[in-house]
């Protein structure tokens, strides 16, 4: 069964669903929010200064990139992509753009 609705009704429906999701999230977070209101820190939460320290302790992007590149799963995904390219199973971005440009005309 399918239903056809106008855009305004669809947008109201989406807003309603999003509000319900927000309410559910607030309900789930109620114990944490009550602890925050009482001036306490909920379990698993950190204050802003500690969060900033954690961010500062992360390696620079270049170092993170090196770690990712060295990961065996990343290396095997690159090897699979190169093999697919060698087999002709990969299309260039230019080819894809041309294809979709022709279809939209």
Overall description:
With 105 residues, the chain is an all-alpha fold. The protein has two domains: 1-45, no CATH class; 71-105. 74% of the residues lie in helices and 0% in strands. The protein contains five helices and no strands. The model has no long low-confidence stretch (mean pLDDT 86).
Largest sheet: none
Q: How many helices does DSSP assign?
A: 5
Secondary structural class: mainly alpha
Radius of gyration: 25 Å
Q: Secondary structure elements and their pairing?
A:
Layout: H1 7-37, H2 48-57, H3 61-70, H4 72-86, H5 93-104
Keywords:
single chain; 105 residues; mainly alpha; 2 domains; 5 helices; 74% helix; 0% strand; flat
In short:
By secondary structure, the chain is mostly helical. 74% of the residues lie in helices and 0% in strands.
